[in-house]
Design a protein that fits this description.
- The chain has about 425 residues and is mainly α.
- It has helices at about 1-20, 25, 30-35, 40-45, 50-60, 65-70, 80-85, 90-100, 105-115, 120-130, 135-140, 150-155, 160-170, 175-185, 190-195, 205-210, 215-225, 230-240, 245-250, 260-265, 270-280, 285-295, 300-305, 315-320, 330-335, 340-350, 355-365, 370-375, 385-390; strands at about 380, 405, 410, 410-415.
- The strands form two sheets. It has a two-stranded antiparallel ribbon with strand order 1-4. Strands 2-3 form a two-stranded antiparallel sheet.
- Helix 13 runs parallel beside helix 15, helix 22 (about 285-295) packs parallel to helix 24 (about 315-320) and helix 24 (about 315-320) packs parallel to helix 26.
């Protein structure tokens, strides 16, 4: 009976004790075992209330020692520490470094970090360069310039933000590379981009082509894509600014080397089709072309007409060509008016009469080349042949003026001379 009474009293006491209100530390998350294990008294020693203890824990600060470090840099409240922690500043020492350069606000630090300036030391460099606001530094970091020293070097080239932006977009990552491009006279970002797009990604590669007298990236890429080196391309460029597709045309004609092509160019055959025209005229060497050049023929198509005539060599054609005859067909026209020698033809061409038909028209008025020359110099030309039949022919008198009949001129003024 006594034992039962004692047990009842114990149960009553236990129930009464368990039914008491929880302490503030129990509300903050401590139970009896935690209070012993974690020594919650240490939180009290740094003047952390149960409510703040819970906030420190929520901010990621788990021990009184950690909390004490945050407090030493002036962040006595867990909310103040959390403002830094959530922007990536996880150590009180880093907070101290920002504070030393005069930045005490986590929001301002976030502005620097948002433009990829993550340390107080980096931010200080911008501030020392008189760029004190993150938004001002942002216009440079946006184009890939992350230090004031780099900016200073770019500015030494006399470039503004838009100019530097263009260089960066062209793939020039640093000032050292930019100087190398400028040294080889590639002074516009657009041109740099063209070289890089053509496969010459460095100034050294582009320089090989530029020094080979091939200054355009597009043309250099044609040679490079065909497997031709800059040195070989230079040999072609030295005789003319030949592009690779044209070289293929020369090679189709059997002209493999620049030296062979150069021989043809020396006699006026500047294009592959010029050589083709000469060869169609059965003139197959530059030396043969040279003889025709000396005679006055500079095109293969013109030479074909002479070769098909009785005057089929430069020696035979030369006297007529020097007299002003361009095609052998003209010789027959002159012979019809009894002008049968190169010398006789030249007597007419030397006074400005360039064709047999024109000479024939003049002969209706006078046989004196002296008089005809004078009329030509005064701007007269023969009238239509049918009209002249009704008109009095000029005679070799002392009167140097064209004869008139009933108010009409036997000759009319050229419109070009009026």
């Amino acid at each position: 009976m006594k034992i039962q009474a004692i047990l009842g009293i114990c149960i009553t006491l236990i129930i009464a004790g368990c039914g008491g209100p929880p302490t503030p530390w129990q509300k903050a998350g401590f139970d009896g075992n935690e209070a012993v294990h974690l020594k919650w008294e240490a939180w009290k020693e740094i003047h952390v209330s149960p409510q703040d203890y819970k906030r420190w824990r929520a901010a990621g600060v788990k021990t009184p020692k950690e909390a004490s470090r945050w407090m030493k840099v002036g962040l006595s409240k867990p909310t103040h520490a959390y403002a830094w922690i959530k922007i990536g500043v996880n150590s009180p020492a880093e907070v101290h470094r920002w504070s030393k350069i005069g930045i005490h606000d986590a929001k301002q630090v976030k502005q620097w970090k948002d433009i990829n300036i993550h340390s107080a030391q980096s931010a200080k460099a911008w501030i020392d360069a008189d760029i004190k606001e993150p938004r001002e530094a942002k216009k440079w970091t946006q184009i890939g310039i992350y230090t004031p020293k780099e900016l200073e070097n770019w500015k030494k080239l006399g470039l503004g933000v838009n100019d530097i932006k263009s260089w960066k977009k062209a793939g020039v990552s640093n000032i050292k590379e930019a100087r190398k491009w400028l040294k080889i006279k590639v002074n516009k970002p657009k041109l740099v981009k063209e070289w890089k797009s053509a496969g010459m990604s460095t100034p050294q590669e582009a320089a090989e082509w530029i020094h080979s007298h091939i200054p355009l990236a597009k043309i250099a890429s044609e040679w490079k894509d065909a497997g031709i080196s800059a040195n070989e391309a230079r040999e072609w460029a030295n005789i003319s600014q030949i592009r690779y597709p044209v070289v293929l045309q020369w090679k189709e004609l059997g002209l493999i080397t620049p030296a062979e092509v150069s021989q043809w160019m020396a006699v006026g055959a500047l294009r592959p089709q010029d050589v083709t025209a000469w060869k169609e005229a059965k003139i197959i060497t530059p030396q043969q072309v040279s003889l025709w050049n000396e005679a006055g023929i500079n095109r293969g198509s013109d030479a074909s007409s002479w070769i098909a005539s009785r005057f089929d060599t430069p020696q035979k054609a030369s006297p007529w060509l020097k007299a002003g005859i361009k095609l052998p067909q003209e010789i027959e026209a002159w012979k019809k008016i009894k002008v049968t020698t190169p010398k006789a033809v030249q007597a007419w061409t030397s006074i400005g009469v360039t064709s047999a038909s024109e000479a024939k028209a003049w002969l209706k008025f006078s046989s004196s080349k002296t008089k005809i020359k004078k009329w030509i110099e005064e701007g007269y030309i023969p009238q239509d042949a049918n009209a002249k039949k009704k008109m009095k022919k000029s005679t070799d008198t002392t009167d140097d003026k064209p004869q008139e009949k009933k108010g009409q001129s036997l000759l009319i003024k050229s419109t070009s001379s009026q």
